[in-house]
Amino acid sequence: MLALLFITMGAWLSLLLDIWYVARLVSEVRPGQGLGYRASLGLAAMLAIIGYFHGCSTIFMPIHIYLLWLVPIRLLALAAIVLAGRWLARRMAKLGVPSLRGLLAKRPARETIKKVMSKRLVKAIVVLAILVIIAAGPIGVPLAFRAVDFSRANHMLSYFKEVGVGSVDIFPEVDPDQLRVTTSEIARSIAEVKKTSAASLVTSVHLGMYGGELCWIATISEPPLFGSLLLGDSNRIREVIVVPTTDATGERAEVVPLKAMCGEGLWFDRDIRVHAQDLFPSRTFTRAYLTWSPEHNGLVYVTTSYYEVPFGPLTDPMVHIWDPRTGALLGQYRPDEAPDWVVQRWDEEWLEAMGAAFGSFRWTADNELNFWNGLPYYSDRSAEPAEPQGLRYQLWPNGELVGVYLFQNKRNPSLLELVIIARRDGLYLYSLDHLALISPSEAKAVAKAGLPELPTGHYSTPLALLYRIGSDLYYHIPIFIVQDGHYYPTYFALVRATDRRLIRVDCAEVGGLREAIVMAYSLVGREVERYITVSGTLVGKHEYVEGGNTRIWLDIRLENGSVVHVLAKVELLDPEDVYLLLTKEVGDPISVLVDKDMVVIDVLE
Q1: Is residue 592 a contact partner of residue 580, using CB atoms and an 8 Å limit?
Q2: Rounded to whole angstroms, how far apart are CA atoms 384 and 406?
Q3: Rg (CA), the chain
Q4: Contact at 8 Å (CB) between 492 and 514?
Q5: Share of the chain above pLDDT 90, in %
Q6: Of all helices (H) and strands (E), which one includes residue 459?
Q7: Average pLDDT over residues 401-421
Q8: CA–CA separation, 485 and 188 (whole Å)
Q9: Dist. CA 16–CA 81, nearest whole Å
Q10: Distance, CA of 538 to CA of 68 (rounded, Å)
Q11: Across residues 245-255, what is the average pLDDT?
């Protein structure tokens, strides 16, 4: 809200009135000792500059939260300055000094001031020590702030459309050609190279749809004044850089002209979030992204927002659609009612804040919450985001962009505890602790283990997306070398979430990152295809002992009439499977899983 910039500057300048009041008190004791014109002018200039820079950081705050902090802080400042001024005037009158300089220069006065300041310093240190003990003690944080988080955790439960026990099948398979391999940082580094003016600024980078494909859309400003000031005609968007999420090198990046008066990252009310807050001053707008709207046949801005209850939960998430050329409001929706082309509808900051609070107070696998969880220790089912700002967007079947928010166990960060899935029609919560899956941070550590040291730069694993391949879950992890702010794809790794099994392919050996993904998938396919299911009718069974271990030859006639011979090694099978084989008679149906050497791995029937 642009008005907050001027309100903040006014609040800082109003301190001058307090100082003038103190100067008047002093002048009543010692005439002629007021605040001079030059001093007032200099002080006003200093306060205005401080207020301007402070105000620039407040323009994104909702008005009710802003006033909730401004009013008491301003009153405290008034009280502190007035009390200090009255004490100063009394000391000058008592000691009979003609000026403040004389008060400080007079030896008795200095000693008196030193004693008073020493006493106050001791009191301040004692109070500060008590506060530190309370904050760092067994209660962790002040209970008032804990109550705020607990209210958010409880409120979060009401938003879940489904709460249940998860399985491998809630994570879909993905077409390797559609796998996202980039982040906003990688897209920004590509946009810095592709922009048509080297002086222009990359003001924002967000996911959006363009040309029927999920892309990173980076907004580029006009060249700024003096290299950094977005003022006048510089304070607008001149073009966007479109980078497909499947392109890690920028080969398919496209420059699209877009003359827009509003955009995220511009200055003052040209920032679409500030412009939106001018119309909805009580809402918090955290993000604005461009996406293609078939309804409007062009790029539109989508903002997500919520209402922050003072010292309470974050409520009422909303989606607003804007014209980037004029800033006109085109529509507003509840997240689950927005059109299908709105790819990100749940506010990211809202979901992360509410989700983190929920995980922190989670007490049981049934998602019961406990206000005292963490005092002094957390329960076995407490959870925390698996990564900082850990909401990850993944492309799921039917082209749906889904937010996947993974949580690791708070007491054992190597294990995955639960997942929150943000879909078009609502939010879903699933417990995953029974699957014994590793966390993304653990998977990234496995992916980078054993890599050769680099003379310059460092390895980076910005993504670890969880997808299913067959019946197993794998983290899909592109590995980059980062040098001078540029990302170079180097490896692609698949890490099985159940047992840390690693498949890593060198991009240089196969011709690039896309080829490395295909190669890794083929390796997983060959691994799965080592085991063959043999089903048919048992036509022969022969038992013998070898090295003290029982062997069972099985002759199985397949449906096509051919007979296959397989060997069962009793010591490799579960007792239930051994019992099933021993009770099989010739003529019974049978189904077994065998490896490439035709040795039975599992008895299916």
Answers
A1: no
A2: 9
A3: 33
A4: no
A5: 35
A6: strand 458-460
A7: 90
A8: 10
A9: 11
A10: 80
A11: 91
Predicted confidence at residue 494, as pLDDT, reads: 94
The β-bridge relationship of strands 532-546 and 213-221 is unpaired
Helices within 158-271 (DSSP H only): 184-194
Number of neighbours of residue 499 by Cβ within 10 angstroms = 11
d(CA 417, CA 364): 11
The two tokens of residue 170 are 């809630």
Angle at 168 between CA 183 and CA 362, to 5 degrees: 80
97 Cβ contact list (under 8 Å, min separation 6): 30, 103, 106, 109
Instruction: Give residue 410's pLDDT band: very low, low, confident or very high (50, 70, 90).
Output: confident
In the prediction, which pLDDT does 16 show? Answer: 87
Angle at alpha carbon of residue 49, lines to 44 and 50, rounded to 5°: 100
287 beta partners: 304
Q: How far apart are CA 552 and CA 482, in angstroms?
A: 56
**What is the length of the chain?**
605
**Distance, CA of 304 to CA of 286 (rounded, Å):** 7
Check residue 93 and give its pLDDT. 66
The answer to whether residues 243 and 251 touch, using CB atoms and an 8 Å cutoff, is no
Q: Model confidence over 205-237: pLDDT tens digits? A: 999 999 888 999 999 999 888 877 888 888 899
DSSP reduced 3-state for 250: coil
- Cα 418 to chain center, whole Å? 16
- State whether the Cα torsion 267-272-273-278 is positive or negative: positive
Q: How confident is the model at residue 140 (pLDDT cuts 50, 70, 90)?
A: very low
Least reliable range by pLDDT among 88-92, 177-181, 446-450: 88-92
Type of residue numbered 162: E
- pLDDT in the model for residue 312: 86
Instruction: Single out the residue of 531, 540, 519, 536 nearest to residue 596, CA to CA.
Output: 531
320: region left, alpha or beta (phi > 0 left; psi from -120 to 50 alpha): beta
β-strand partners of 331: 321
The 3-state DSSP class for residue 461 equals coil
Residue 91 has pLDDT above 90, yes or no: no
Phi, psi of 399, rounded to the nearest 5 degrees: 75, 15
At residue 492, the pLDDT reads: 95
Is residue 274 within 8 Å of residue 301, measured between CB atoms?
no
* Tokens found for residue 67: 């006033």
Q: State residue 50's pLDDT score.
A: 93
CA proximity to 393, closest of 363, 430, 350, 422: 422
What's the one-letter identity of residue 537?
Answer: T
Q: HSE on the CB side for 362, CA within 13 Å?
A: 30
Residue type at 231?
L
User: Is residue 63 packed enough to be buried (19+ CB in 10 Å), middle (13-18) or exposed (0-12)?
Assistant: middle
Of residues 433, 398, 387, the one with CA closest to residue 166: 433
Q: Residue 439 carries which DSSP code?
A: P
Q: What is the pLDDT of residues 169-188, one digit of tens each?
A: 999 988 888 899 999 999 99
**What's the mean per-residue pLDDT of the chain?**
85
Cis before residue 462, ω within 30 degrees of 0? no
| Helices within 296-424 (DSSP H only) | 348-361
Side-chain half-sphere exposure of 252, counting CA atoms within 13 A? 13
**Residue pair 63/281 in contact by the 8 Å Cβ criterion:** yes
